[in-house]
Structure prediction request, 241 residues.
Amino acid sequence: MMIKILHLYPDLLNLYGDRGNIACLVKRLEWRGIKAETVKYTCDDKRPFDLSDIDIVFIGGGSDREQKIVCRRLLEHKKDLKDYVENNGVLIAVCGGYQLLGKYYKLEDETIEGLDILDIYTEQGKKRLISNAVLESDTIGGKIVGFENHGGRTHIGSHTPLGKVVYGFGNDDKSGYEGVIYKNVVATYLHGPLFPKNPRLCDYVLTNAIKRRDPGFKGLEPLDDALEITANEYIVNRFKT
Ligand code: GLN
Prediction:
């Protein structure tokens, strides 16, 4: 089996080295003897936009300026991305990428139109929400740790959140929830090494991708994650409230 990962707009959306998450996805597949291929689609790409053989799409974070540029290109592929998600395609969207999955991202002087894949919207607030973060997540059955830095407040309506905020600001600094889980979409404000810090979340994503290709898939072989789990627990304890 070969798992194909598409990194969307790595030239513009790659804040805090979001692409390291792709390295983690690939490595955790390879450790189990599953091959992986990563393809990039940049903003000036002239190739046809084809998701038919893609197993995982990754969209990272970016500044407001970069989001404005990306959004114009992204909207050209709105239908493909929407169909992909409705067809249970796995999509990981981080921060700026998360905001662009919604209806819009309203800035002080303009509104960026989103893909309308999720029934959510984002509005820029006065203060930036910058913090380490700890979530309690039913999806992975445990704690997710990470780092957030966003000006936008995302209102997720009746969507299922990725987790409950134990420490940090979350989607909007008020609701007490962070991110969204919708079908095989994981959308979150947590930047940087999300998957290395949260191997269970990484395996949740990989399992969904493999199952979509092979419905009879029995589950991933366990790996020795002792170090990763110790690091994760250290952060959970550090920010215990
Ligand atoms: N520009 C967006 C915000 O500030 C997203 C930032 C990011 O991706 N870190 O809300």
The longest strand covers residues 121-137. The domain at 2-239 is CATH 3.40.50.880 (Rossmann fold).
